[in-house]
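Retro notes
What went well: the complex prediction finally ran end to end.
Inputs used:
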Amino acid sequence: MEEKTNVLEVRDLSVSYTVANVKTHVLENVNFSVEKGKSVGIVGESGCGKTTTMRAILNVLPSNGTVESGEILYNGENILNMPNNKLQDYRQKGAGMIFQDPSSALNPVISIRNQFLEALKYAHKDKKLTKAQLLEKAAKALEQVSLADPDRILSSYPFQLSGGMRQRVCIAITLAAERQILLADEPGTALDVTIQDQILRLIKSLVEAGELSVIMVTHSLGVIRQVTTAVNIMYAGTIVEGGDTKEVFGHPMHPYTQALMDCLPKLTGNGIAKGIPGRIPDYSSPPGGCRFAPRCPYVTDRCLTEKPVPHETGGGHWTSCFKAEEGR
Amino acid sequence: MSLLKSILKRLASALVVLLGLTIIIFVLMRIVPGDPARLALGANVTEDVLEKYREANHLNESLPMQYVYWLTGALRGDFGMSAVTKRAVIQDITDFAPATIELVLWAGFPPILAALFLGVTSAQHKNKWQDYLCRFLGYIFVATPTFVFAVLFVLVFGYWLPVMPTIGGRLSPSFVIPDITGLYVLDALLGGQPAAAWDAFLHLLFPALALALGKTMQEARITRSSMLQNADKDYITMVTSQGVPQSVVNRKFLLKPSVIPTVTIIGMDIATMFGNAFLVERIFNWPGLSSYGMTAILNKDTNAVCAVVLIIGLAFTLTSIAVDIVAMILDPRMRQKRTR
Amino acid sequence: MGDIILEIKDLKKYFPLADGRTVKAVDGVSMKLYKGETLGLVGESGCGKSTIAYTVVGMYGASGGEVLYKGTDLAKKGYKRTLKQKGEIQIVFQDPGSSLNSRRTIEKSMEVPLDIHDRMPKEKKTERIEELLEMVGLPKEYKSKMPRNIGGGERQLISVARALATNPEMIILDEPTSALDVSVQAKVINTLIELQKKLELSYLFITHDLSLMRNVATRVAILYLGRLCELAPTTEFFHGPLHPYTQMLLSSIPVVTEEEEAIKPGQIISQGEIPSPVNAPKGCTFHTRCRDCMEICKTEMPVMTEVEPEHFVCCHKYTAKQEKQEKQEKQK
Amino acid sequence: MKAERKEAMIKNWYKFSAGGVSVIGLAIVLLIILLAVFAPVIAPYPEDAGAVVKFAESSQAPSMEHIMGTDTMGRDVFSRLLISLRGSLLMGVLVLAIAVPVGFVVGVLAGYYKDTWVETVLMRIVDIFLSVPALVLALAIAAILEPNLRNSMIAITIMWWPWYARLSFGVASSLRTENYIVYAELTGAKLSHIIFKEFLPNTFDQILTKMTLDMGYVICMGATLSFVGLGEQPPMPALGNMINDGVKFLPEMWWLAIYPAVTIIVIVLGFNLLGDGVGNIFNVEGK
């Protein structure tokens, strides 16, 4: 077996936001890593902190967000306290992100061509490429994401494109930079399923060719299963379960993961479960113990007061749940 | 849609609006109590003379026909006679317009740069002393009516610290400059008389400042708030996350979308200046169209009032078209939307 | 099959563009909705599924064809719907953010249909609203809440309750859960299914989510660029999809279990892009992306054929087969 | 429910007072309203607000007796200033009371019927009124009518409603495709329901914010008209005509013009600051 090298490692990351003088503790001790040339998924429902995690990895949290603790290691170096020029370098060549909302991620008053050029100029600055060469890369990336007429797209402004096209332009800008790590935030949400399938296949093929490491966050378990080899289930800012994708989906252990799987409508057509009662907790005063406890059908007193720690059940599959730990 | 097509569309709609304006003006002119012939000729003329005047001015026709006659006259530049100056109104207007145009040009355009500079500085030093100073002055200046500025300037710079040229006029009588554009500073420079240009500029400075200060701070405020708003947008985070240096992000990605709101209100601001000039010109004795219009209004000189209102409407429409074109160049989205 | 409550015949809806071209959003669609069933109308963006819904509900008129509700053509030029019809045909919209007026309480929003269709004294109205809330499984205290204080799923349930206020016979569900998380979607869907059983409602369910339709719909109809590709009872549809587009759609769905993987028609790789409905391809609109494209597909529009009872396909592959079979039968 | 409302109040106050300055604005506005309401009681010489001549006390500089001095007729400037506040505030209230409903209805109708002839006609009319600086046409109208306080209000109202029409048009045309509007339509709601029950609550935030700001600007425009003699007529005091009278005696008798001028600035400033705070509550960007 070849040696594992983690190209990116997130350790004990906690992030909070301050909204109207109230502090909300969104992420709590998030841990995960991605190996070189592998793909990792983070699944969770809206408001669980997926996007915050991604932004933290690039150190571009909104101005009211703060990293409370933890580190994010890129090739062993913590990017959270990197000097500015190194951080710039990391963003240019290390990791790049596909933003979730295609309608706000592109500058409305700058042509797609110039947005490509500006981004690629810095991403490829060591190679001293000419403008024409950069545009060639842009055109190639656009073709990769199944946009048929790159010239027309390049000379357009974002408002002239449909939502699906904009999203693919965002993907193409990020891919054309040819960074080591791709952070994909809901890369298919705005796309039709047949187009989404093409994009997912593309990302998967890039990973399989060993060119790319991917961290993908999405609410869709299916997308994760199609692309990634390892998965982390996120609930209310904590990762509750993780491991090999097929294994986790095949034998979910955390009550949240199980409930999520049951709620999902399946092609086999055996109905849909009742759903999970309650709502995601208020981050300004999150539950003291397990964050899922208030909605959990198997809750015990211990869950309400004590925070569960990851418990491995074999084959790299682990979960943070007392039920699994106690073997109930 | 192409830029040209949008501009043409914009022009067409402006034409409709101007036509509507002439109707309003005409209605205003006709609701003046009393017999228009009598008003024009005075109390001591015979019925015969009045009748002749009515005949000559189509006052016996139906109102819509009168409007048509008035409009065709106006289109040819014939607004009738002024009751105050006893000259053709159009002549008065051509005499007085350049002074107002010069004043509004100076008050309207150079301060935009100041506004942008202050807005950007304020945003980049958010909650530091520069920002607080800008915002404090902004609140005070925006709250000050233009005529109060004018009065204060006269008091402070006219009497207390007499840096202002003797009150009134556009140029000290000792200078004679060629009449080329009607804009004195420019004419003086074209005529190779820097001293005269400086003198004309000093005459201009305080009226222009009185007109500009409030609007400039308003524009600065808008620039500041749109800079700050946009700085947290995804598209800025996206380029930052791509490793584009902060200075480049600010210059190439943040500035352009942020100045657009400012640019779009400039048209409105300049229009308001044409209005406020009515008072400023009066207080500073500036021999312009607005001062002429003000005299006409106070003396119920209907022909002159209508002409001045129409001319100012035209000037405003042209300015806002110009501003819209600039906005369309800056913001491709505007080319699609129908403007105003 | 029961009574037909709604029949759409050759429905067309064209939108003129500013530059003189037209978008053929719906171009000749025919289908029936039986009483008490759920017909799933599935397709990707630009396929015209929402346009059909909006035409049925009366947001805009049709450019051609008929919309027969209990035998009355609602789409006839100049026909004005009666208040009764407006009450009987209700709609639940996709976006939970905009389906309720954010500035009015739940009670006020729910009063809208009551005030129009069922005037009653204030106290009875409050009672009725509480009853409706109970029907969708929400506590009656919700009536005094503002929309921003409740979750997206709950907002959708309020929309459902509001639609029930006029005692509808048929509800058009325009992607009612596509903006919701699956755990929330589950509750909304289950409530809808229960209500349907209890009140004998007919649903026209618009969605892009085929997996959801597998669990909800009685029959499924697939649309592509304003035309119907395939229409079949759900079980049959998922076990033997016939149209190449349907097969491509099914194989593109990301799934989570091995069992599901087995159902997907494998080895069909999604290709090409959905053409703009402004200049839809000639012939079969799907031919530009079809892996089985034949010469005839590029020029001639296929027609809807019933290949098996209640299983309709619109594809030259099957029309050709059908004709052959018929010929053979004749020869026999 | 009560707790929820209380929480909302606290949150709104937090948003309102976030900048700090809005509280100052609120204080200024409250003070001005109180002063105006109780002016006849507070004013040391309430009779000076009319045609009074007191030669013995004429042209006095500010002193303990006349804290803002007296004018050439010996009238107390402070008293006249207090009384003039009433006319100014009344003007602000009345102008907006008429301009806002008219503008709202016109704008909402145009927005709701966007892309039809209704929009074209209504919005062209609005555009025409906006094609000339408000002050110019207001001056012209006020001059054609008899110059007095009432007519200056009429003139300002005629120029002010188009702004509310434009504001409401913007809101209505972006909300008209919202599902709750479409739903009300489809269920058979009347136009009046759609305008007043659906659009009005959603336009309210922006209208209220603009109204607060505009109170100051209307007062300012009223003062401008009265400055050139087209408002309240002497001997009754108004902020504008007091300044106009005072300008003639600059710079020696500076108190005649300066105090009313500062008063206007403070009023407009107060409403501006208050308007910013109101806008912060609703997340509406002020002008």
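What we learned: Chain C touches chain D at residues 57-59, 83, 86-87, 90-91, 93-95, 98-104, 108-109, 112-113, 115-117, 144, 149, 162, 166 (CB under 8 Å).
What to try next: split runs per interface for comparison.
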